[in-house]
Design a protein that fits this description.
By secondary structure, the protein is of the alpha/beta class. Strands 1, 2, 3, 4, 5 and 9 form a six-stranded mixed beta sheet that branches. A five-stranded parallel beta sheet has the order 11-12-13-10-14, with helices on both faces. A hairpin with a 6-residue loop joins strand 1 and strand 2. Helix 13 packs across helix 14 and helix 14 packs antiparallel against helix 15. It is globular and about 105 Å long. The two termini are 57 Å apart.
């Protein structure tokens, strides 16, 4: 912003009378935009430089920002100078001060600076749609429009728009042995950068990208390296799922207007209560992005209430160890899985060191999008519906996810052709690979949800048996436990023998002619565990699914411990 300083140096000071010891100079006008439920709002500030002449003749210079509706008050002057400025006292001095302020703010040839609250696409007055970040506007030089410095891009100027940079960025798709993981992750970063374009086209980015893997599978390292666009001096996630509050997650979701938010470390709760809280937060996060509707709060009586608004922006990438949730929630996710051998450490390390590659490439890609902004919006609007019909999935949202990735694949291939990096054959191969990877992952996701639904089948069968009195629970106490019943209950649990539950499930499946068959006791226990219905005991590193009753007088049989609240919740869905 050297041009701002150069212009400010030519602007004169406006002095008061000899009875006042200060003079003022307008350095620049600053307009802050912020988001509200009613759309973008703005506030205008004056950046004022104050020169104070103390009694000993020494000069001290201060600088402050003053909101336009407060500029003719003297409170800001006291605060900015620590009361060193002699404040106008009588009517004549106050009138002189008002005239001095008026002359100051009418100064001509002063730069107007615009600051937006976060990085992304903005319809800038007199400029049109541009991507704004911490250092300015993509594709523009010497423009005083930017966000705060949080949204900095590590750009290597000499590498901008070169085939070498493109090739290095594209190689990120091979960080994983299973290329489908890193390929689709890389594409989702592009989708997040184009969130506004998809919204303008009428097809918002309404799903969360989830990387699921065991501890030490390098999920976090992969995500922060491939998907962290801004502030890459620190390769860290934007939030930690386990410790974030619901409000914290909501605020994090508004961090970027058009970039991926990285949320780390969804893992199993240590207790059933903790697990239910984790499941609740996960459901809230996914629905936040799936519906793209920000929470509404009563802010009318809050100071600066209209600014207490956190619109959902960009996309969300979540790392997880175990993924639970109801089917309607999980259909809003695109989930890839990795193990501890998938990430190629030598390739990952290269990108962890060469952190400039992703933002330098992204800058040129965004510049290309800027050149054809409206055409790309029209392209998405026209072709998205036909791509959505290309493949049939059990869940309509999967067809939208498929169309989104297909669209991104085509845009990247067109960018590469326009820049001269690829020919038509290379571009076509890239789009074909994208379709194959996305289709395979979505079909796998669909199968996982069907498996989860099989677990619900077992609970439905159990609920039906209770409803029809085919089996009746006996209250567990010292007198009843020795009767060796098939089903007991207390305030918080049902205790049922696994072979009895399996029989109920088989009878229910046969009666209702369902295709979802549970083939063994082992599969049944695994499904119940995945639903967080089955309480597991851990002892000396072993996980015990079937165990003796908590009261064991005269009864050595083993039972499944089913959590009553979880059973009721599933039956209520």
């Amino acid at each position: 912003m050297a041009n701002i300083s150069a212009i400010a140096a030519t602007v004169p000071y406006f002095s008061a009378t000899k009875d006042m010891n200060f003079s003022l100079r307008l350095r620049r006008i600053k307009i802050y935009f912020y988001d509200t439920e009613d759309g973008e709002m703005k506030k205008r500030f004056y950046l004022i430089q104050i020169k104070v002449v103390k009694k000993n003749g020494k000069i001290q210079v201060f600088e402050t920002e003053v909101e336009d509706n407060k500029i003719k008050s003297t409170e800001w002057l006291k605060k900015a100078t620590g009361c060193l400025a002699k404040i106008p006292s009588d009517k004549r001095e106050k009138q002189v001060f008002t005239e001095m302020i008026q002359s100051c703010i009418e100064t001509e040839n002063v730069t107007t600076e615009i600051q937006y609250p976060n990085a992304g696409w903005r319809n800038i007055p007199l400029m049109g749609w541009k991507y704004v970040f911490g250092n300015g506007v993509v594709g523009e030089r010497r423009v005083c429009v930017h966000t705060d410095t949080t949204y900095s891009l590590n750009i290597k100027d000499e590498a901008l728009g070169t085939k070498g940079t493109f090739d290095k960025a594209l190689e990120m798709t091979s960080i994983c042995q299973n290329r489908g993981v890193s390929h689709t992750l890389w594409l989702y970063v592009h989708a997040a950068m184009l969130t506004t374009l998809f919204e303008l086209a009428g097809y918002p980015l309404n799903f969360v990208f989830i990387i699921q893997g065991i501890t030490n599978s390098r999920k976090t390292s992969l995500v922060t390296t491939v998907a962290k666009l801004f502030d890459r001096d620190r390769l860290v996630a934007d939030a930690e799922f386990a410790t974030a509050t619901a409000c914290g997650i909501e605020k994090t979701a508004s961090r970027y207007k058009d970039a991926p938010v990285l949320i780390d470390d969804l893992k199993p709760g240590a207790t059933m209560a903790q697990q239910r809280e984790m499941d609740r937060k996960l459901d809230e996060l996914i629905r936040l992005y799936g519906n793209r509707v920000s929470k509404k709060r009563m802010t009318d009586f809050m100071p600066r209430g209209k600014e207490k608004f956190f619109p959902v922006g960009g996309g969300c990438i979540l790392t997880a160890e175990v993924l639970n949730g109801v089917s309607s929630t999980l259909t809003r996710t695109f989930t890839v899985e990795i193990n501890n051998m998938d990430v190629r450490n030598e390739v990952l390390s290269f990108y962890q060191i060469q952190r400039w590659i992703l933002p330098t490439y992204a800058y040129d890609f965004l510049a290309w999008v800027t050149e054809g902004f409206q055409g790309i919006v029209n392209f998405i609007r026209e072709h998205f519906p036909e791509w959505r019909k290309t493949l049939k999935f059990h869940y309509a949202r999967y067809a939208e996810i498929y169309a989104t990735f297909w669209c991104i694949g085509i845009l990247i291939s067109q960018y590469a052709q326009d820049r001269g990096f690829w020919g038509r054959d290379e571009a076509g191969q890239f789009v074909t690979e994208t379709q194959q990877y996305v289709q395979a992952i979505l079909l796998n996701n669909q199968e996982k949800i069907e498996e989860k639904n099989k677990g619900k089948l077992a609970i439905q069968a159990f609920g039906k048996a209770l409803e029809t009195a085919e089996i009746a629970p006996v209250e567990l106490n010292e007198q009843t436990c020795q009767q060796r019943k098939d089903l007991y209950e207390d305030r918080s649990r049902y205790y049922i023998r696994s072979q009895i539950l399996k029989r109920l499930v088989d009878q229910y499946s046969s009666k209702w002619c369902t295709e979802k068959k549970i083939f063994s006791n082992e599969e049944l226990l695994m499904l119940l565990e995945n639903l967080n219905v089955l309480e597991i005991e851990e002892n000396a590193g072993k996980r015990i699914r079937s165990r003796k009753l908590p009261i064991q007088k005269g009864n050595s049989l083993r039972y499944l411990y089913l959590n009553k609240e979880s059973v009721r919740n599933i039956l209520a869905e």
